[in-house]
Design a protein that fits this description.
Distance between the termini: 10 Å
Number of helices: 4
Strand content: 15-25%
Radius of gyration: 16 Å
Strand order of the largest sheet: 1-2-3
Shape: elongated
Oligomer: single chain
């Protein structure tokens, strides 16, 4: 399971995002996501495409789980390593 590791390197200010989008995008690629602060408060998150696709697949699996019985959950969940 990938847990979110919040590191100061993955946090940028809104003004940094505006001034240097390219380097912020590179950081998102490195960390999977960056957190954008506005006035020192959480404002947005920028995901790399790889992380977005991983999360989207997980959400689709959750949607499938909602429509099945508890006994069938193991069949829907991705196996370790995927």
């Amino acid at each position: 399971m990938n847990l979110v590791k919040l590191t100061a390197k993955a946090i940028v200010s809104n003004s940094d995002m505006i001034k240097s989008y390219k380097s912020c995008r590179a950081k998102a690629g490195t960390f999977g996501r960056i957190f954008i602060l506005k006035n020192n408060k959480p404002d947005a998150v920028l995901y790399s495409i790889a992380e977005y696709e991983r999360i989207s697949e997980f959400i689709e699996r959750l949607d499938e789980i909602e429509s099945i019985d508890n006994e069938d959950i193991d069949e829907v969940l991705p196996k370790a390593g995927k």
